[in-house]
Amino acid sequence: xxxxxxxxxxxxxxxxxxxxxxxxxxxxxxxxxxxxxxxxxxxxxxxxxxxxxxxxxxxxxxxxxxxxxxxxxxxxxxxxxxxxxxxxxxxxxxxxxxxxxxxxxxxxxxxxxxxxxxxxxxxxxxxxxxxxxxxxxxx
Length: 139
Description:
Blueprint: H1 2-12, H2 22-43, H3 49-67, H4 70-80, H5 85-130
Helix pairs in contact: 2-3, 4-5
């Protein structure tokens, strides 16, 4: 932890003439705007609270990592046991994507099952209501 604080202090002690890289400025702007948008959208009730909280925290973590990129290296080494911060980001992204795809697959299967039940009920209701003859123009 002392290494982290020392690194952050050294970064903060940069000369004023040493401006941050352009990509860092872009990332801070994008993730900052994303965080604000998600927070406002969640507070207005346009998305579920748990969903908004998750995405807001993810945007906030990306914003912090954009401002202090050495945090990802510290986190990778101290917490995950990986040497480079970018490796940790890639690994965590891959894990998150696998979990997300699985959750989407489960939801899609549930929706398919619900649709099948609905179509069956509708077909039975139409068959009972219309009887043998129907005037829908079918031969």
